[in-house]
Amino acid sequence: MGKRKRLAHLPHETNSLLPQKKHYRQRAHANPFSDHALDYPSSLEAIDWSEHYPAFAASGKTPEFADIGCGFGGLLIALAPLFPDTLMLGMEIRVQVTQYVQDRIAALRTTSVAPVPSPMSLSTTTTPYQNVSVIRANAMKFLPNFFPKHSLSALFFLFPDPHFKARKHKARIISPTLLAEYAYVLRPGGIIYTITDVRDLHEWMNAHLDAFPLFESVSETELREQGSGPVLDAVYNSTEEGKKVERNGGEKWLACFRRKEASRMIAP
């Protein structure tokens, strides 16, 4: 495992404070079924979100956006200034990659200049990126340990591991079993965003989401008409994987689904 530079040892120039990925080398993928010696909260009450979002410590807020398998944090960094009042959490299983995102956020909080507040913004923070954080976690096993029922308004699955071999399909992040958990933490009206450069995986995710009774497909056009264009632009272009696909002239396959309100049968 390669050595990495700590922020305290770097020069004070803005560009030098930002961590460099070459010091955080790790395998591209991790086996989600392996024992990764993870620490996870025993209950929702055991989580102290003020450690992740100190500027919002007195607000009582909890994360509303969750980026599952956030990689190097490109989506989080892109969305944080656009939604300064919304807490966002990245979940990443790889040690070094998680550390990179933590250091990146810390550096941005230190070096970024606060923008002029928008009249529509309710944020009381004085510096950007206070609303974004990352945690090392296995979302396939412990997602409900972090998020209460109906607490999220957006779930992101961007360029997930395709697990090409049929015997590995059980490790795909979209599956009937996991969709029940996503429906649990996502509030009615909330959106699941998926994107991949692998058409087979796109068709797999689309088919499973479409077959699940608590999700309904929503078109990119409809989402843009509803004001989600900046989110979709970030989904397409903010991640390392998305940029790589763009450079290589590859295709990106987007599928978005809305959490439906559950209908209840009333006995006569």
Automatic annotation (TrEMBL):
InterPro entries, sorted: SAM-dependent_MTases_sf, Trm8_euk, tRNA_(Gua-N-7)_MeTrfase_Trmb
Positions that bind S-adenosyl-L-methionine: G69, E92, I93, N138, A139, L158, T239, E240, E241
Molecular function GO terms recorded: tRNA (guanine(46)-N7)-methyltransferase activity; tRNA binding
Catalytic activity: guanosine(46) in tRNA + S-adenosyl-L-methionine = N(7)-methylguanosine(46) in tRNA + S-adenosyl-L-homocysteine
Keywords: Methyltransferase, Nucleus, RNA-binding, S-adenosyl-L-methionine, Transferase, tRNA processing, tRNA-binding
The keyword RNA-binding belongs to this UniProt entry's keyword annotation: yes
EC number(s) reported in the record: 2.1.1.33
Entry's localization field: Nucleus
Keyword Nucleus carried by entry: yes
Pathway(s) of this molecule: tRNA modification; N(7)-methylguanine-tRNA biosynthesis
CDD domains: AdoMet_MTases (cd02440)
Gene Ontology CC: nucleus; tRNA (m7G46) methyltransferase complex
Residues the record marks as active site: D161
Quaternary assembly: Forms a complex with TRM82.
Family: Belongs to the class I-like SAM-binding methyltransferase superfamily. TrmB family.
UniProt-listed NCBIfam families: tRNA (guanosine(46)-N7)-methyltransferase TrmB (TIGR00091)
Protein role: Catalyzes the formation of N(7)-methylguanine at position 46 (m7G46) in tRNA.
The protein's name in its UniProt record: tRNA (guanine-N(7)-)-methyltransferase
Source species: Paxillus involutus ATCC 200175
